[in-house]
Write a structure and sequence with these properties.
two-stranded antiparallel ribbon, 6 helices, 155 residues, five-stranded parallel sheet, alpha/beta
């Protein structure tokens, strides 16, 4: 009996705010309107997902707020003003779309929690369970290891 419970328990999400089901993920995509993109790249890197995924989402009607980590000379991406830190963004943000290596995410967690988006999306290939758990415990929904553009196309 304990084996059955363990299998069931291990298949459940770690936290109710860490989303894994298709319907939950679709709900996050559909409810967002303003997306801050942490780690966005400028137009000079148009062949990289950190540029073309936000560009696609902007073309689909979402407002994109660029928060690049590098490129200090860049002041605008996708026609939008660049902010250097999430907490500097003056507007409310529905989603923070993260293009950072997993080991680089912890330095942003406090800012993410302070910004209080409804959701945080770690792009395909990006998983940091500890950061996700901290964000989820703050009442923010988290999606890990999924491409926002691909999930949007499923809708």
């Amino acid at each position: 009996m304990s084996n059955c419970f363990e299998r069931y328990h291990l298949s459940m999400p770690v936290h109710e705010n860490i989303l894994t089901g298709p319907a939950q993920i679709a709900g996050v995509v559909q409810s967002a309107r303003t997306i801050a993109v942490l780690g966005i790249k400028p137009e000079t890197h148009s062949s990289q997902p950190a540029f073309y995924v936000p560009k696609y989402m902007q073309a689909a009607g979402y407002r994109i707020i660029p928060v690049p980590v590098y490129y200090p000379e860049v002041t605008e991406i996708l026609g939008e003003k660049v902010y250097r830190k999430l907490i500097d963004v003056p507007d409310e943000v529905d989603m923070i779309n993260v293009f950072r290596r997993p080991q680089d995410i912890p330095q942003h967690v406090d800012d993410i929690i302070e910004k209080k988006p409804r959701s945080v999306w770690f792009q395909l290939g990006i998983v940091n369970d500890e950061a996700a758990e901290r964000i989820a415990n703050a009442g923010i929904k988290v999606v890990q290891n999924k491409c926002l553009m691909v999930e949007h196309r499923y809708l």
